[in-house]
Design brief:
This protein is mainly α. Helices cover 55% and strands 0% of the residues.
């Protein structure tokens, strides 16, 4: 039986691990979760800051006990776990209407017969979900992928297949490739959001498999879409982290970012393929490749792509930015105050919010200068609860702080699981800032006590 002190240490370690795992690649997340002992792993599964990708990897690689703890986590919303929304919600809908029965017949349908019906009624997922509840033979993945490669299924049909098709993960990834569909019509983003929310794919896997590349870039910000299925703020930050990781080979070279902005609108392949070809300088040299079932299309881009202002905004929001000019005395005082915690958390939150509202501080400043580092990574300690009704008014500092933390972690730790683990185990008791912590860990010096 663990003592009270050991229990508190496990809670602190789990909370810090949850914050760090938001910024780690998938293989690092899997490795770090495996290193946690039983009590810390239990508290991690129940933590309110678990990212969507971490939940997916816990369900995919964790034990039955992990899945049970995650299922009891009230903050894990929208995934097909016991007691949480999922495909069963749609199975409770009424059966097919008489009009639909007269049009398509009672079934049973083969996969070849079902695909045209899904294509003809797939603008929204309601009717495709009804069709998938009607008698039909088990879906043949080969036929499904062949038809999708020939002519991509509409978004509503793909979303229904992800929800109720009981498809392997590889087939679900392939259905997110809409390379031959030149328009981004109603609900084009819904299958991608659904794939993350139901625990089918992580954000890194989404960034690697969604096609065409412009859709991956547009997924970083869905706030301009109609009301309905969209990213929550934590999911949005996770998607931005994954896309920024895919764009990291471009470094801070303005020429390469200009090439991305010029070729992304019409490129039919995935974003990692586009980035790799931009870095190699082979966009115009490689011949077009025909579409194939289950894999990304890598055709040569065309110069006459669609004009998408939202795409330009997305690329510019992800591109490296020059350092802002140093402000006056008020800004220097605000930066200094971040290293001195106030008497209460609420007083600290009010002060930081006031500085953010007056433009004295940014989200990047909080990550770089707030001490201790575990408080800088936890928005609750400087911005308040993200479930507060005004959370959308404070989305900009949250996005900026997460992006800066992504940059610092990637620069210092790369993809080395041992270095990430040293940060996780050091963070609970470290009193300095995040850059100081990363410097101490990478240099291998002492990390005990106040720096």
């Amino acid at each position: 039986m663990p003592t009270a002190e050991e229990d508190r240490a496990s809670r602190r370690l789990a909370r810090c691990a949850a914050h760090v795992l938001r910024h780690a690649p998938d293989h690092v997340v899997t490795d770090l979760v495996g290193r946690l002992d039983g009590p810390a792993r239990k508290y991690l599964c129940r933590d309110e800051w678990l990212s969507a990708s971490t939940v997916t990897l816990l369900l995919r690689h964790g034990s039955q006990e992990d899945r049970q703890y995650v299922a009891r986590n009230p903050h894990v919303v929208g995934r097909p776990l016991p007691g949480l929304p999922g495909p069963a919600r749609y199975a409770a809908r009424p059966g097919p209407s008489p009009e639909l029965l007269r049009e398509v017949g009672p079934g049973p349908f083969t996969t070849g017969e079902l695909v045209p019906l899904l294509r003809g009624h797939g603008r929204r997922p309601r009717i495709p979900l009804t069709l998938l509840r009607m008698p039909h033979e088990p879906l043949d993945p080969a036929v499904l992928l062949e038809e999708h490669a020939r002519e991509p299924l509409p978004p509503g049909a793909v979303e229904a297949l992800l929800l109720a098709g009981a498809l392997p993960r590889e087939v679900g990834r392939a259905l997110l490739d809409a390379g031959a569909r030149d328009t981004d019509g109603y609900g084009w983003y819904r299958p991608a959001v659904r794939a993350v929310r139901m625990g089918l794919l992580t954000c890194d896997e989404l960034a690697a498999h969604v096609a065409p590349a412009r859709r991956t870039l547009l997924l970083v910000d869905l706030s301009g879409t109609r009301s309905g299925l969209r990213w929550s703020l934590p999911e949005r930050t996770g998607m931005r982290t994954a896309v920024a990781r895919a764009l990291r080979p471009l470094r801070d070279d303005p020429r390469l970012w200009g090439e991305l902005l010029r070729h992304a609108p019409a490129f039919r392949g995935t974003l990692p393929v586009l980035v790799a070809r931009i870095v190699r300088g082979t966009l115009r040299e490689e011949p077009a490749a025909g579409p194939h079932a289950g894999g990304p299309r890598t055709g040569v881009p065309h110069t006459g792509g669609p004009d998408l202002p939202a795409l330009t905004d997305a690329v510019r929001s992800l591109a490296p930015k020059a350092a802002e000019p140093v402000g006056g005395v008020d800004r220097e005082l605000a930066l200094a105050s971040l290293a001195v915690p106030m008497e209460s958390v609420q007083e600290d939150i009010r002060w930081v919010r006031d500085c953010l509202a007056r433009g004295l501080l940014t989200g990047e400043d909080v990550i770089r200068h707030k001490a201790p580092a575990c408080w800088a990574l936890d928005e609750d300690h400087w911005l308040g609860e993200v479930s507060h009704p005004d959370r959308h008014d404070w989305a900009a500092p949250v996005l900026a702080s997460r992006a800066e933390a992504d940059r610092l972690f990637a620069l210092a730790l790369g993809s080395d699981p041992d270095a990430w683990w040293r940060v996780v185990t050091t963070l609970p008791d470290f009193a300095g800032t995040l850059p100081h912590l990363l410097l101490r860990v990478t240099e291998g010096g002492s990390v005990s006590g106040r720096p």
